[in-house]
Amino acid sequence: MKPKYLLLLVLLLVASIAFAQGGLFSQPPQAETPNDNSSTTPILTVHFIDVGQGDSIFIQGPKCVLIDGGVRDKGGAVVSYLQSLNVTRIDYVVATHPDADHIGGLIDVLGSFNASCAPTVIESGATSATVTYQYYLSALQGREVINASRGMIFTISEGINFTVYSPVQPIVSTDLNENSVVIKLCVFNVSFLFTGDAGFATEEGMLASSLDLYSNVLKVGHHGSASSSSNVFLEAVSPSISVVSVGASNRYGHPAPETIGRITSAGSAIYRTDLDGTVTIATDGDQLTVRTQK
Known about the structure:
Layout: H1 3-20, E1 44-48, E2 57-60, E3 64-67, H2 75-84, E4 92-95, H3 100-103, H4 106-112, E5 120-123, H5 131-139, E6 144-147, E7 153-157, E8 160-166, E9 182-187, E10 190-194, H6 200-208, E11 217-219, H7 231-237, E12 241-244, H8 257-265, E13 269-272, H9 273-276, E14 279-283, E15 288-292
Parallel strand pairs: 3-4, 4-5, 5-6, 10-11, 11-12, 12-13
Antiparallel strand pairs: 1-2, 1-14, 2-3, 7-8, 8-9, 9-10, 14-15
Helix pairs in contact: 2-4, 4-5
């Protein structure tokens, strides 16, 4: 055989072997996205529902928890949202404090989920003379009502629980905001801190009690008002994600620019329901996945 034909035969043999093994003619492997947890199966999801100027947070896991319901006019929207998730039971309803933008929507929620489907309500123990509060009291009929007190622990499942950080009973403050129920939710290695309308005074009280405030996610107190989320509090919490539940162009000027500045300086990403719509944060106990409506 002539040398040039022998060389050609060798080259063809090498090429065919390389092709069979995915070599010369194969595409380079696609790089994986660092820390891509989109395929992670969540064991719990927190929904920061867009209810305008108010709070409504739904914790969807082995047991379900609803924290506040926005104003009365948003109650139907909260019920519809829960129905879209095929929710048939709310194990714990938390009314952080009696302000209308927190308990108003709970009237419709409690009307739609009877006492067997929403058996337990956790509240601050503070009262109000408003008509909204009177309707809220009527909706409580037949349910167990627990006055939250620092140190109470509620188990959702093994490795998942929430602890009351505030208030301390008996409550002494006449400021409804400072009586807000504050809870820390722990999901294995991930934690969330929900602060209602708590301001500087409540933050100082928790700091003075040496509570473990560190949390991956912070529900920013009082819609981001200037009198919440102090620098020292944010340093203790050290959130990687902060969520502000707030209405667009609200008359209170929430969130205050100085508060947003403090949160940003703390190194936290910020999500806002007025800009992002409903914000959902899912976790597998180690990682967090954030999705926004807008």
